Amino acid sequence: MADKKRVVWYLNQFFGQIGGEDKADIPPQKRDGGIGPAAGAKNLLKDKAEVVGTVICGDTYFGENVEKAAQEVVAMIASFEPDIVIAGPAFNAGRYGVACGAVAEAVSDNLNIPVVSGMYPENPGADMYKRYAYMIETTNSAAGMRKALPQMVKLALKLITGEKLGTPKEEGYIPRGIRKNLFVEERGAKRAVDMLLKKLNGQVFETEYPMPNFDRVSPNPAVKDISNAKIAIVTSGGIVPKGNPDKIEASSASKYGKYDIADFDDLTSADHETAHGGYDPTYADQDPDRVIPVDVLRDMENEGVIGELHRYFYSTVGNGTSVANSKIFASKFAQDLIDDHVDAVILTST
Amino acid sequence: MVKEIERAGLPVVHMCTVVPISVTVGANRIIPTIAIPHPLGDPKLPADQEKKQRRQLVEKALKALETEVNDQTVFES
Question: CB of A231 within 8 A of CB of A342?
């Protein structure tokens, strides 16, 4: 049917059915028709639209070459001449969320067609790129696919058929920060006083202009003399002693570990490994110094470049781990670090 | 985590590969690293060169800790 609208879908290597973390470094590639969730959307799109192509890119490739990858992906998307692009859903997968968002930005800039995506609000890709896509708010794991997919498709159909959209809340997408003028029954002064009265009475009310949440912490003063400073290592890369004694979860970590490295000049595959389930562990398992530079810092300590390498490092798995948990972990061990007279921290992330 | 450590009063440098995430999260001193699965190493290099490269990155991180910043700063190479 000639009047079917054309949809192109963006997926990562996993949902694109190419492979797991071992395939996360594949460059962009395209396929005719829909794959994975894109194939699942067929019935939902009915006779109004069809998925004409799928573009797939490995999450690590994208994360390491964001601008280049976005340009490559957008060129492939353009070759299908779509009316709309759907990306994800990425749930709480950070690299995938950033990829979906960067694709949305590149599509908006270059092709001038709408993009629908889906992710968990804490996904860093949501805040970074929400201006460029209608991002359906999803759960934090792929278990939410069955709920997310119909919502995404429904919104996409509205966009391509020109149907009027409701508010972000009504449609279920993350607010894009776009202001729309509209006429309402009651004038502003009355609405403001009504809200104030509700607030005074402890009733629920909804603001018309939510304040952006800029949680920024000012930088602390620099370290005066690094050769006298005690430096501690913290990582979200999941490095743990071999066997993962605290059983830190491979994703959505509920805890962190504190590990003694006083006896180590160098971490090796014999004594340490990664517990992280969100990246290919081959390289970190071979040589954990690739994630936390214990060997180098020990040398520097011996040479007097730094005062001291703190005898404990702190580690968790930053893979789908909630912001709330991360905050709790860090506020706990930061106090430990201060009590132990640590002067500065090197935090590494994968 | 980086923000909570800073909030507690300790200067902290974030070494990571996906810099835009670090900026969004709110790190103040940021050092771009090599790759997601091996931020502080490159398995393609011979061991001695790999360690040398790691040392250079750590030196940059220490330098960042010694540098006064007023705002979020990415210390490019």
Answer: yes
Return all residues near A296 (Cβ < 8 A) that are at least 6 apart.
A289, B51, B54, B55, B58
φ, ψ for residue B19, nearest 5 deg:
-55, -40
Which residue type, as a one-letter code, is found at position A171? E
Radius of gyration of chain B (CA): 13
Quote the CA–CA distance of B61 and A55 in Å, as a whole number: 37
Residue A215: closest C-alpha in chain B: B26
pLDDT digits (tens, 9 = 90+) for B44-55: 999 999 999 999
List, in order of start, the domains of chain A with CATH numbers: 5-171 (3.40.50.280), 226-348 (no CATH)
Q: Is the separation of the CB atoms in A31 and A57 below 8 Å?
A: no
B37 reaches A (C-beta below 8 A)? yes
| Residue range A63-120, pLDDT digits in tens | 999 999 999 999 999 999 999 999 999 999 999 999 999 999 999 999 999 999 999 9
- Residue ranges of E strands in A213-260: 230-235, 239-241, 257-260
Q: Do A338 and B57 touch (CB under 8 A)?
A: no
Does the distance separating the beta carbons of B10 and A290 come in below 8 Å? no
**Alpha-carbon gap, residue A315 to A309, rounded angstroms:** 16
**Record: contact B39-A290, CB cut-off 8 A:** yes
**Does any CB of chain A come closer than 8 Å to the CB of residue B61?**
yes
Residues of A in contact with B7 (CB under 8 A): 217, 331, 334
| ipTM confidence | 0.97
Cα–chain-centroid distance for residue A327?
Answer: 16
**CA of B54 vs chain A CAs: smallest distance (Å):** 7
Q: Which residue of chain B comes nearest to A63, CA vs CA?
A: B18
Q: How far apart are CA A330 and CA A314, in angstroms?
A: 9
Q: Is A257 on the interface with B (CB under 8 A)?
A: no
Chain A residues inside the 8 Å CB shell of B13: 344-347
